[in-house]
Amino acid sequence: MIVTQLVTGPFQENCYIVTDEATGATAIVDPGSDGERIIAEVEDKGLDVYAIWITHAHVDHIGAIAAIKRRWNVPVHMHPRDASLYRVAHRQAEVYGIPFEQPPPPDVDFADEQSLELGDLVFSVFRAPGHSPGHVIIHGSGHALVGDCLFAGSVGRTDLAYSNPADLESSLERIAALPPETIIHPGHGESSTIGEERATNPFLNGTARLIRDPST
User: Fold this and answer.
1) Contact present, 134 and 126 (Cβ < 8 Å)
2) How far from 172 is each of 19, 127, 164, 165, CA to CA, in Å?
3) Rounded distance, CA 25 to CA 21, Å?
4) Cα dihedral: 37, 40, 42, 46 (round 10)
5) Would you say domain 2-205 falls under CATH 3.60.15.10?
6) What residue ranges do the domains of the chain occupy?
7) How far out from the chain centre does Cα 96 lie?
8) Does the N terminus or the C terminus of the chain have fewer Cβ atoms within 10 A?
């Protein structure tokens, strides 16, 4: 398995090109911006694009979908609980004053606990709400695409529309249960491992909380 990270757009969002080395089968994960650059990277490597996977539907994670769909008419996978965010992403882009092309509707719904194949690779998908209601984690072969749930040393925002800090805390517990050697690939910033984050990330090891206990 090969994971190529491209930092895209004004939000410095991480798009990932995930490839089965044996077959060249490729999924483009969270193409947030710079569609032509992502396309060029894939074409330079001679990869076969099979799908676009979306961890969540915030504007900085979906801005290059339209361009990629024009180049390769492959299915866009997204959890349906993020559909309302996806439909109005162009309005979010207007608020931030960034160029944005509204993507076509998703083709395939992610479901909790589903199995996902890419060439000879098999991934598991689980819903991890909190940063957004339909946020998902995609993990397999020792890697986890964690979107904006978990960052190296931090976690995703919960002050956005449809965010929920209690839900994110529950999702982080589920993420923390992954094997410690699992490499995490977040939506922003550097990669890390579950073990490193358990040891040093206060939101993953229980020394900090997103919601305050009223009894304390």
Assistant:
1) no
2) 26, 11, 12, 10
3) 8
4) -170
5) yes
6) 2-205
7) 21
8) C
